[in-house]
Amino acid sequence: MSQFLQQLVNGLSLGSIYALVALGYTMVYGIIKLINFAHGDIYMIGAYTAFFVTTYMGMSFLPALLVCMIVCGILGVLIERVAYKPLRKAPRITALITAIGVSYVIEYSTQLFMGTSVKTFPKLLPDTSWVLGPIKITYIQMVIFTVTVVLMVLLTFIIQKTKVGRAMRAVSADENAAKLMGISVDNTISMTFLIGSALAGAAGMLVGLYYNAASPLMGMVPGLKAFVAAVFGGIGSIPGALVGGLFIGIAETMVVAYGSSLYRDAIVYAILILVLIIKPTGLFGKNEREKV
Amino acid sequence: MAKQLYSKSNMIWAVLVIFIFSLVQVLISMGVINSYYESTIFTICINMILAVSLNLIVGICGQFSLGHAGFMAIGAYCAGIVTRMIPNYGGMILGILIGFAISSIAALIVSIPTLRLRGDYLAIVTLGFSEIIRICIQNMKITNGAAGLTGIPKLTTWPILFVALVVSIIVVTNFIHSVPGRAALAINDDEIAAEAMGVNTTKYKVMAFVVGAILASLAGSLFANYFYVLNPNQFTFNKSIDILVIVVFGGMGSISASVLSAIVIGILNMYLQQFTDIRMIIYGAALVLMMIFRPQGILGNWEFSIERLLKKRAAKKEAA
To answer: Given A64, A204, A238, B159, which is the most exposed site by the fewest CB atoms within 10 A?
Structure first.
C-alpha cells in the first residue's frame, strides 16, 4: 500500500507535466482544429532555454521559469504566423504535414546547434524532501505541483474572466460569428498559441529539472502522450486536459511499477484506442452532431 | 472482356513496363548500376509500393492513416523470421503469405472499430496502433527484441521486386475502377452524402484499409529480404510520416503522382545523404514550403493515362 501511494505521488508529478503540455494541444485544437505536432518540440525548447539561462547566465528558478515561458510563447506565435496562418483554410492533412515539417526543423536545428548529447542542469533546487507517513515527496515534485496549480488557476482566470479569454471561447465556438462581433480572429489565435506554448515551456523546464536532462528529441514521445491526454479528457476542454494528463501520468507510472517498463508506452496508446472506441469525445468533450 | 484486356493502351503499358524492366536488368548485369545505385533503386521501388498502398487509404478513400509503418513492420518481420528458417524462395513466399494474413487481421482489428471515427482521431489511433505493433516487436523473443534480426537471406531480386511493384499498382488501379473503389471515392468526396446514397461506408473503408495494409506488408517483406537486417527502430512513427510525405508530395489520389514522387524523393534523399547535419532541417523546411505554396502536390490528382493520350491523338487526326 505504501508503495502504491508513493507511485501515485510520482505519477501525479509526471501527470502534471503532461497536463501542462496537453493544455496547449487542447487549446490549439479547440480553436483551429490542428494537431500541433510541433508542440512537443516547444516543450523541448523550454528545457533547453532553462538549461541555457541557468548554466550560462546563472539565473535562479523563478526568473528562469519566466524566461522559458516568454521564449516559448514567442516561438509558438512565430510558428503560427509563419507556418500555420497561410493554411487556415487548407484541408486538415495539409496543416498536419506542415506541423510535422515545423517539428523536424525545430528538432534538427536544435541538434545542429546544441549537439546530440544530453545536457544536465546546475543545482537549482535543494535536495530536501518531506516524509508524510508512508510517502516521500521531493522538493522538485512539490515545485511541479505548485507551478502546475498556479498556472492552471491563472489559465482558468484568463479564459473565464478576461476579454482575451472570452474572445478565445468565441472563436473556438464559431469563427465567423466571432468575426462579425468584431473580434480579431488572427490576434486571438496568436494569443492561444502564446499561452499554450508558454505552458509547454514551463513544462519543459520542469521536466528538465525533474530528470536532470535535455536532449533534442525529448519532445516527441511526451508530445504524443500529452496529445493522448488531451483526447482522453475531451479535446478542447481545459479541465479535461488536466484530468487526462494526470490519468496518463499515473497509468504510466503504475505500469512501470507493477508491470513491465518495456510496455510503458504501449499502455498509453492502448488507453487512447479504448477511449476513442468507447467514448470518442473523451471524458469532458461535447458531442457535436455533424450537420449536412 | 478479352478485347478490353488486349486494348491498345494496355498493350502500350505492357511494352513500357517490359522496357523499363529490361533496361534496369541489363544495366545491373552490365555493372553500370553499381550496388550503391541498386540499393537506391530498390528503396525507391519499395517506397513506391508503400506510397501507392497508402494513397489508396488516404488519397482515394480519404481516411487519414499515420500507421503505415506498422503494417510494413509486420510483413518485414514475418518474411525475416520465416526465411531465416527456410532460406529459399518457398520460404520467402510463405513469409509473405503469413505477413498478408497477420497484417490483414491487424488491419481488421484496428479498422472496424476506429473507422467510425473521423479525420484526426483516426490518424492518432492508427499512429498509436503502429507504435503498439513496434513496441510488441521490440519485446518479443521471436523477433529478437530491440537488437533485431540479422542474417536474413537476400532473396529480393530485381525481377521479383519489379513484378511485386507492377502487381501492386495494378491491384490498386483496378480497385479504384471497381465498385468498392467508386464507393471509396464517394466517401472521400462527402461521407454523409455517400451514406445517404446507400453506400455502406464502414464496409468500403475497411476494405480499402485492409488492401492497403496487405500491400504495405508485401513491401515490408521485400524490404527485409533485400537489406539483411531488421530492427524495430526502422519502423517508427517517422517511417509512416516518410511514406505519407511521398503521397502528399506527389498528389493525393493519383497513383502516377505517388510513383513519380517516390522517384523524386528517392533521388533527393540520395543527394542529401552527404549533408547529414542539415538533411532533416532541409526536409522539414521543404515540407512547410511545399504545403504553403503547392498544397495539392506536384501532380495534384492528375493521372497519367495512355488511353487519354491515344484519344487525344485520334481527335487531332480527325480534326486535321
So the answer is: B159
